[in-house]
Design brief:
This protein is an alpha/beta fold. It is 49% helix and 12% strand. It has a domain of 237 residues: TIM Barrel, CATH 3.20.20.210. The structure holds coproporphyrinogen I. Coproporphyrinogen I binds next to β3.
Length: 354
């Protein structure tokens, strides 16, 4: 990837970055996980024109277009690159497809022997395509909108690579890790290295901030959490911080619950994104580490709308907004979300006065 981003002109203020640098702002910045997606009619139209889901991810012009759609509608403080965490196994040569209405399918890697099928040295070609989307976005986004690059955390990506599809208990990956920790560790090592390459490429192409999605962090006991969540994330963050010292990293260890504080301390992330089940008082206590918290509005309350939506927005802001905070959901927007409820949410956050 040779395209590199123009430096941010000194007069441009991307307010999204303030909390990530330890500064509270009011009202806090807002973006939403899965802000591009099937709840938007314009997304569905572009998606239909692109062909398959991966065709869309690998079409820089259309991927940039769907990234921009929610920014045009709602003026979020940050855009997130349109792609998917499973671009990484696809880039490594494990065939990935998305079945309509059923989710992803991969040719599963159930033991260390199957790791031979992966080709980390070939991944750069695929990453370059995604980085082209990032470079386009840096040109096309309003100057004050931050651009978030992302990848899945090694553990979460491994659960799909080993299971071959999404699951609620990640049983195949957990069993592989118990049966053969050394072999499973080799898979994690491959994912650490390739994630660093991928995220670093996104920064060079113009990403201002990075987020690491560990959507299935919740299923591990604490020793395994340390081996497969904390340690690999810490390695990725440490290397990125050396290569790109000014670029903040947000971690999203979904369901980490009682291990969230340890996650924040050990991994070196600049902010932690919290899921819907996290009590606000725990998010408050996490802010005392001088780092930002992000989250945790319930995506289903965004479907419901009405006075309950306003009440919860106010409660979150009352509890968290005087310290570094980014308004977001506790997980991604669901397809049945009425777009006007998203407008209501953004308006409520923007009108906030402490
Ligand atoms: O047909 C479609 O349009 C497919 C729906 C879809 C979309 C819109 C998928 C399939 N991925 C995406 C985009 C996506 N995925 C983004 C884009 C940017 C944005 O947020 O606007 C991002 C950041 C992701 C990340 C992602 N993909 C995660 C981590 C966050 C999370 O939601 O937990 C995970 C676990 C995936 C895997 C994935 N991709 C798609 C689906 C349906 C799934 C989940 C599969 C499962 O049920 O386990």
């Amino acid at each position: 990837m040779t395209v590199s981003a123009p430096a941010t002109p000194p007069h441009v203020h991307r307010r999204f970055l303030d909390p990530l640098l330890g500064k509270a702002i009011s009202p806090p910045p807002i973006w939403l996980m899965r802000q591009a997606g099937r709840y938007l009619p314009e997304y569905k139209a572009t998606r239909a024109a692109a062909g398959s889901f991966l065709d869309l991810c690998y079409n820089p012009k259309l991927a940039a277009e769907v990234t921009l759609q929610p920014i045009r509608r709602y003026g979020f403080d940050a855009a997130i690159l349109f792609s998917d965490i499973l671009v990484v196994p696809d880039a490594l040569g494990q065939s990935v497809s998305f079945l309509e209405g059923e989710g992803p399918r991969l040719d599963p890697i159930r033991d260390a022997g199957a790791l031979k099928r992966l080709k980390p040295e070939a991944a750069a070609k695929t990453y370059a395509i995604v980085c082209e989307t990032v470079a386009r976005l840096r040109q096309d986004l309003p100057k004050e909108t931050a651009l978030i690059g992302f990848c899945g955390a090694p553990w979460t990506v491994a659960t799909y690579m080993v299971g071959g599809e999404g699951s609620s208990d990640q049983a195949h990956a957990r069993s592989f890790a118990y049966r053969d920790p050394k072999g499973f560790g080799q898979l994690i090592d491959i994912l650490v290295e390739t994630s660093i390459e991928y995220l670093s490429g996104q920064v060079v192409a113009g990403a201002d901030v990075l987020q690491i999605f560990d959507s299935w962090a919740s299923t591990l006991p604490e020793d395994e959490f340390e081996s497969w969540v904390l340690e690999p994330t810490q390695r990725i963050v440490a290397t990125l911080k050396k290569k790109h010292p000014g670029v903040p990293v947000i971690g999203f260890p979904r369901g980490a619950c009682g291990l969230s504080e340890t996650f924040l301390k050990v991994t070196g992330v600049d902010a932690i994104s919290c899921d819907t089940a996290m009590p606000l008082r725990v998010m408050r206590s996490l802010q005392h580490h001088g780092k930002a918290v992000q989250g945790n509005f319930d995506p289903l309350l965004l479907v419901a709308g009405g006075a309950a939506l306003d009440r919860r927005v106010d409660e979150i802001l009352r509890t968290l907004s005087d310290k570094p905070f980014i308004f977001n959901l506790g997980h991604g927007i669901v397809p049945q979300t009425p777009p006007e409820h998203v407008a209501q949410l953004v308006e409520r956050v923007r009108a906030w006065k402490p």
